Amino acid sequence: MRTLLIVSPNASLAAAVRSALDPTRYQVIEQAEFGESELRLTGASFDLCILDADLTTVEPIRNVQRLRRFLPQCPIILYAAHSQWNWEEEAYLLGVSHVLSKPVRGRLLNSLLDSLLAARPVTQPKAVPAPAPRYRPEDQRVAEAAQISARSLEGLRNSSSILSHSLSIEPLLKEFLLVLREILGLNRAGIFLRSPPSATDQTGAAGDSFRLTPACALGLAAEVLEHFELSLGAGIGGFVLRTGRVLRRDSIEVEHDPRMAREFDALGVRVAIPLLDRQSLVGVAMLDERITGEPMTNDELALIFRLLEPVGLAIKNIWSHEQVSARHEMMFDILRHIKAGCIVVGPELIVLHANEAARSLFPRANRPAGVFEFSDLPQGIGSKVFSVLKTGQSVLNYKHHSTTSLGQRFLVSITPFHRGNSAAPTSALVVVEDCTTADRLRQLEIETANLRLVQQMAERLAHEIGNAIVPLSTHQQLLHERGAEPDFQASLAAAMDEGVKRVSRLVEQMRFLARDRVARSESVPVKQLIEEAFREARNYHASNTVFLQYESSGEPLSVTCDRQGLQHAFAEIILNALQASSASCQVHVRTRSDTDSSGSRWARIEVQDSGSGFSAEAADKAAEPFFTTRKVGLGLGLAVTSKIIQTHAGKLEIPPPRNGVPGVVRISLPLEPAAPTAPGKPAAN
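Now predict its structure.
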């Protein structure tokens, strides 16, 4: 029976391997992590080792190195869910037999085990001899324990001096190098680091990924360090990044790489040790030999490597702290200078921050400088803040009217802050804007615009009514002299008819402009509406030779509408089309039905004149009140039409004009739903 060692933090890999193998041929022993003491005792009893690791960092490579140290002849199979080619190549160079991707495939695994274990003899578990009893006098045991405790406490005292610099990188590294110099007698030492992340970086990774700059040094000339940096693309930095291993000056790799040799010689050091944070490379420690000239042993370098790992974590924590501090400073500067009042309220209704604008918006007599309490907020805003902190729901654009004599009006937005996945808010940001002045200015603008509109309306109405009255006034003056003449009576009748029509049309326009909803609804065929509107428009046109060309898609269309209002709207459009050309008074109307993306049916109506079309300005402003290109009239025709169409939930559109193309006005009105056809009866034509 063969014995397989599986090292995996997850039990799923061992379970998958057991299910794929014959239990009569293979015994599977599972461990969650490397236990060096167990490997020393039982390493010879394993025939093959299966390692579970993702080849994306240097940590699996170090595990393979440790495994090779205790099991030099044992085949290794590595399972990885994620892999990078450079780390996979490094694993093969360290003696890994196969790198397989998850999940476990039984046939492939059995075939590989047969080929790897065919030449290996079956090993029996090595019996661990029981330790021989030792006799130790009581006084000797106490003395040795005291010596061990003293050495441990002395080492702890030396290393604890680093803790006082836990928020500053350079003093931390300086103290660390001084401790190493005291213990090992180092001659020169320097630590090169990657750039810290920026304040706006959300990943927390190092900033510049290609350079290592000096962060701290002992015994190295300042003028050298000022112009010296390492690259992660080549040289010492590139080698340490790729391999994650300690590099000596007298190694074969350095002898074959002139750039690495120059970097070692320029600094006058002999060893480069990677500085990791258990996930990625943070920097490189460059160390010289002892003051006595003796090189450091491999065990000492391995210990320094392990000591540098907590230092790397501390550097990463310092970077995170500096990043958070920079963000806080930036946020407080923004809140300090923003014109809106900003208040941060904690869950116990304690004000964590209030800027100067907030204190000026809500003043309180005898309040100490820089102090703002929750009770300083108006009751209405305070109750909203309390609700947000309890429910976690934001309050946006809440308008609060002050009850003070100033009569201030505030626009308030309250946003809850959550920490992690916590449902309950940890605080709330209250943003208060004093909109009193803005509201007053807005109201003043509205009133001014209304006054301008009233003034314009009065001027246009006076002009239009005056035009209608002038002929009547003239006939009134001649009535006593020529009242009995037949020609005068006919002229008077025509003037009265024209004046009544103009004033009646003006009254109708004013009435429809003042109406905001459909007065009464009835179903009316579209063709009938167009014909009645054409007859109404012809009454207001001077020419007696006017023509209507009606073109339908063949489907009878009916709309539910205020018949009088919609007829007036079409009459205004047709009259505008008749007035577009003095040579040919012809109007072309096309109707069809259409269904939009939501399934709603519409009546599409196009009214085309026989003139030269709209100008760009006229197409843009035609539906505005009092806009006209003619010397007579109020300019309310299409404005009234647009208002009537809107009250019927329709749309009026004037396409962009094109040179030489007659003007077109498009109207869209919602159609009545199609009536269902009774079973057995044909649909009406």
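Residues 359 and 368 are 11 Å apart (CA to CA).
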